[in-house]
Each structure stands twice: as structure tokens, then as C-alpha cells.
Amino acid sequence: MMINLRVWLKIPDAEAATVKNTLLRRMGYQGIVRDVMRERLLSIEVDEVSDPETLIKQLTRELVNENKESFAVSVNSLELSNGCVPVKVSLWIEDGEAISIRDRLVKRLGLKMVRSVQRANIWKLYIDGDDPESVARRIAEELLVNPNKDRYEIIKLN
């Protein structure tokens, strides 16, 4: 079973604002990019459990700071809203932070059913024009991804 935990800031996200300003002011995307938002994605692979709701509550209590973050959870799928082009950026090298999160869940909380944790950022690009996916691909390659350590994927929305 895969638990997808999406987390975003309740307060303005300075990193997303910087990316948006860079795109508009320095890279010539005025009139093309309307907005940029960012979410953290934790994909947590677990063994089947009898009470997934309780497990999800434990995970969110440990991994989300509800004073400053909002979250959404989906099981065995990734549910995103339409209207944006989501670009998932993750490491293709070993992710020490994801390993640390897994170890914390297993060793500190005793959640032995946790098998793996994968971490990524989802950049939600709100793009005007005829081919927003190719614009998103160009933005990912020009700005969002460091090719020495990152990979990206344009997530298809249904």
C-alpha cells in the first residue's frame, strides 16, 4: 500500500515566490505563467494494515507541523487538482532525508510496517497558452531541476 502525503505551507512560500519572480522578471514568462505553488510529497510504502486511518493519523502527526502546514493524504494514487501542470522533482541519487524519515518512523515510532519513503517536490505551474505541458517541461529543465542530482516528471491529471 502506498500512502501519498502532500504538504504545503499555510503562510506564503518564499521559495515558490522566488521561482515565480525569476520566471516572470528574468526568464521572459510574463503573460505565460500565472502562478507557481510548491508542495512536498512523501510517498510512504507500507505493508497492508487492518486500520489505515489510524496509521495515517500517526504519520501526519509526526510529519506535518499543523501550525504552519496543510496536508492531503491519498492511498495508492496521487490526487491533484486540475488547472495546473504538476511537475514532480525528486532525487535520482540516494535521498538521505527520506532514509532518515523512514528510520524515524520505524525506530522511534515503532511502525514496522513502513517499507520505504520517497520524497519529492511538486511544483504546480499555472500556465496559459496552447501547450502548457511543453512550457512546464522547459521550465523544469531551465530552472527547477539540477541535472546532476534531480529528475522530473510531468504528472498527468485525469
Automatic annotation (TrEMBL):
Keywords carried by this UniProt record: ATP-binding, Ligase, Nucleotide-binding, Purine biosynthesis
GO biological process terms, semicolon-separated: purine nucleotide biosynthetic process
Source organism, top-level taxon: Archaea
A Pfam match: PurS
InterPro entries, per the entry: PurS, PurS-like_sf
GO terms for MF: ATP binding; ligase activity
Protein name: Phosphoribosylformylglycinamidine synthase
Organism for this UniProt entry: Methanothrix thermoacetophila (strain DSM 6194 / JCM 14653 / NBRC 101360 / PT)
